[in-house]
Amino acid sequence: MAEEKTVLLTQEAYDKLQKELAWREGDYRDEITERIAAARAEGDLSENGGYQAAREEQGKNEGRVNELIVKLRNAEILKAPKAGIVGNGSLVTLYMAGRAVQYVVGSRDLAVATDYDVISPESPIGQAIMGAKQGEEVSYKAPNGREISVTIKESIPLN
């Protein structure tokens, strides 16, 4: 069995994933089961598109249920760093390519609880800004090989 990775989440993201899991295990699972039963009652299953579609949807739902169970089991609630220091759970304002942009630093799972785009700490830009302080200029190598400079304008805790 593969080693399970810790999933860093804000409390809000954790709560939203728990809510989604409850819905998928409850009402949504029941709805799919009812559609399968109704399609099965129509007769010949080999040519029943509704039955096949409902079974496929059931498989996707169960896959997502399993994914959510693993994420929630391995979740760790973020303790964002102090204001002014970039880390997991920081909302950063960066000045790059002549404009200011805002991102949350952390796993893509944080996206469920924020309207901001998320930067992975493992990405080239994420590695460059992790631990940087407000006002610092850092640089990273883009996938195309270009060196890109970024200034940290602001870093505040997300939670």
From TrEMBL:
Coiled-coil intervals: none
InterPro entries noted in UniProt: GreA/GreB_C_sf, TF_GreA/GreB_CS, Tscrpt_elong_fac_GreA/B, Tscrpt_elong_fac_GreA/B_C, Tscrpt_elong_fac_GreA/B_fam, Tscrpt_elong_fac_GreA/B_N, Tscrpt_elong_fac_GreA/B_N_sf
Pfam families (UniProt xref): GreA_GreB, GreA_GreB_N
Swiss-Prot/TrEMBL GO biological process terms: DNA-templated transcription elongation; regulation of DNA-templated transcription elongation
GO function terms (MF aspect): DNA binding; RNA polymerase binding; translation elongation factor activity
Keywords: DNA-binding, Elongation factor, Protein biosynthesis, Transcription, Transcription regulation
Domain Transcription elongation factor GreA/GreB C-terminal as annotated: residue spans: 84-154
Domain Transcription elongation factor GreA/GreB N-terminal: 8-77
PANTHER family registered for this protein in UniProt: TRANSCRIPTION ELONGATION FACTOR GREA (PTHR30437:SF4)
Role: Necessary for efficient RNA polymerase transcription elongation past template-encoded arresting sites. The arresting sites in DNA have the property of trapping a certain fraction of elongating RNA polymerases that pass through, resulting in locked ternary complexes. Cleavage of the nascent transcript by cleavage factors such as GreA or GreB allows the resumption of elongation from the new 3'terminus. GreA releases sequences of 2 to 3 nucleotides.
Family classification: Belongs to the GreA/GreB family.
Name of this protein: Transcription elongation factor GreA
Originating species: Bifidobacterium aemilianum
